[in-house]
Amino acid sequence: MAIQLTVKAESRFTKAFTAYDDQVKHGYNPNYVNPQTQRIKMQVSNLPTNMTSWEWRVTRRSDHQVFSKPGKVLFTVSTVSRSEGFNLDSEGVYDCQYIARLPGGKEEKSPMETIHLRDLLVVVIGDSAASGEGNPDKPGKLNQADGGLFDDFMDFLSEFSVKYLTSIFAKKEIAGVEIEPPDMDQPPLWLEKNAHRSLLSGHVQAARHLENLEAGTVVTLLTFARSGAAIVDGLLRPRSDEDRGGNDISWINQNGKIGQLEEVRRTIGKRRIDALIISIGGNDLGFAGSVKDMVAGDSSWIIFDEDDTKARAKINESIDKMLGPDLKSGLLTKTGGHFDQLKAQIDKLNVSNVFLVGYPTGFFDDNVKDGNGEFKLKSCEVFKSVADLDLTGADMRLFRVAARKLNRTFSTVIAPRYGWHYIDVTTGFLGHGYCAKPGRFFIHCEESLMNQGDIEGMLHPNAQGHEVYESEIRRVLHRQLILKSTSNQPDHGVVDVDVTDGKSDAGKIDLHGFAKPVMDRENK
After folding, report:
1. How far apart are CA 217 and CA 11, in angstroms?
2. Other C-beta atoms within 10 Å of 45: how many?
3. In the β-sheet with 81-88, what is the strand arrangement from edge to edge?
4. Exposed/middle/buried for residue 152 (C-beta within 10 Å: 0-12, 13-18, 19+)
5. CA distance 512 to 293
6. Which candidate, 130, 177, 127, 137, places its Cα nearest to that of 153?
7. pLDDT per residue over 417-460, tens digit each?
């Protein structure tokens, strides 16, 4: 039987966690960011028992340089398998072969195997959706000694009022009793605990699945996403507020407080970014904070001294002011100006592709549809109580509408204007809201408390939700970074934009006249 040879690259994504220093520098190892070599592993089997020496040979096609590792047989030859690694000093196409030398000057060679070494740099920036909020790399463990009090607290919340939810952290009174934050026997493990940043977000996992070690494609993954980030307060400049617990946020960099884009620039230098993945806009709209504030009983949207009707009117007013009733005015006057600044800063980097990821719209979807074909809305857990801040159908519908408007602005205005790729994730979340049974794709308040000792993870995608993100982002990245690199086919000018979950006001939009049309959502 002929010698069998297999060749594959060594994964770089799997080194991302250990390459990040979360104790002192709060940054990535420069040798990981800008590697001097790329490593491949060759393995052979079915070796001839009478060989006297061998040679591992790798030839770079571009300049025909040969990398060789010879050896001599000193003992009985194992015919099972043996392996060898090569550190190659550049990307490119390499022809690999194993040569077994036999008595009498004869040779037996393996078939030639070719590998195209390619190291893709994928950078993730943005808010809690991209940081993996609610999904630590390893969940913490609640102190069971506090279980009885904790359970009583959760029962109290469910039966009486969600108004005091965050008071366990602020040490406020609940029924006249001061409650300490729940003790954790084992704290959660994060890539960066101060940012609630993990490698389990769908944005990060999509990059992982780009790796094809047999083909030679590896991924250097750098995520800078941070929970609570907004365009200005997070990407362009550092967070202006204090970190969790009132701590200083200078941990971001030894040189002081900087925004994520500046952190990217300092980290990568002049290296080209193959894919910049962005999740941003929700905090600019005040969307995520408003949900938490409702639960806390201190909402900036719905407050006690006004009835819900007036409060919802104020919400609609803030949405229209932010996005504009016609979508094209508001976001390009207020937040749109911020996007212009964001685009200008991104252009200072060496970026090949920018991907703007949308938001789910089905936060409170049940898994049952109404007579109009819309998924019914449902509240439960801390969002269902006798308090005035209980989320009504009108409240939940408002969040759905706000997310739809934001996504539509991304897909029809922002992405085409700047030549970015928009990635729609709405379909995968439909019918999988916070209270859907079965099939919930969002984290409950109690889960967040149990897994990370706070409520920050509440209403963020759970593992199943991030699988939706991963699937949609991976599909677009593969098309743009893998398929387009060989075909060089341009995007088409008319695309199928469905950002209203199948409603009648979505449809074919002609993007000719804007910048490069790159709406990335295939028909389902």
Report:
1. 9
2. 17
3. 4-9, 38-45, 81-88
4. middle
5. 42
6. 177
7. 999 999 999 999 999 999 999 999 999 877 888 899 887 898 89
Q: How many other C-beta atoms are found inside a 10 Å radius of the C-beta of residue 70?
A: 11
Chain centre to alpha carbon of residue 340: 23
What pLDDT shows up at residue 398? 79
Distance CA 430, CA 269 (A): 41
| Nearest Cα to Cα of residue 97 among 8, 6, 9 | 6
Structure tokens at 67: 């990398």
Contacts of residue 359, Cβ cutoff 8 Å, sequence gap at least 6: 129, 281, 282, 287, 403, 406, 407, 425, 426
Backbone angles phi and psi of 185, in degrees to 5: -60, -35
For residue 336 the two structure tokens come to 């749109």
Q: Which helix (H) or strand (E) holds 332?
A: helix 330-333
Q: What is the pLDDT of residue 182?
A: 67
For the chain, the domains span: 4-111, 121-140+187-520
pLDDT given for residue 200 in this prediction: 97
| Cα dihedral sign, 238-239-240-245 | negative
Q: How far apart are CA 38 and CA 451, in angstroms?
A: 37
The tens digit of pLDDT for each residue in 100-157 reads: 999 999 999 999 999 999 999 999 999 999 999 999 999 998 765 544 445 555 554 4
Q: Provide the 10 A C-beta neighbour count for residue 281.
A: 29
- Cα–Cα distance, 457 to 454 (Å, whole number): 7
CB-CB neighbours of 231 under 10 Å: 22
DSSP assignment of 116-151, as one string? EEEEEEEEEEESHHHHTTT--SB--EE-GGGHHHHH
Residue type present at position 41: K
Interacting residues of 519 by C-beta distance below 8 A, sequence separation 6+: 411, 415, 416, 421, 422, 495, 496, 497, 509, 511
Q: How far is CA 201 from CA 12, 152, 233, 367, 411, in A?
A: 18, 32, 21, 24, 22
- Class of the domain covering 121-140+187-520: alpha beta
Q: CB neighbours (10 Å) of residue 87?
A: 12
Q: Is the dihedral of CA 514, 518, 520, 524 positive or negative?
A: positive
| DSSP output for 65-80 | -EEEEEEE--SPPPSS
Distance CA 287, CA 259 (A): 21
Structure tokens at 393: 């159908």
Does the domain at 4-111 match CATH 2.30.29? Answer given as no
Q: Quick one: 524 exposed, middle or buried, by C-beta within 10 A (0-12, 13-18, 19+)?
A: exposed
Alpha helix ranges (H) inside 436-513: 445-452, 463-477, 484-487
Q: Which residue is it, tokens 């991924």?
A: 219
Query: How far is it, in rounded angstroms, from Cα 194 to Cα 127?
Result: 13
Contact (CB, 8 A) for 130 and 201: yes
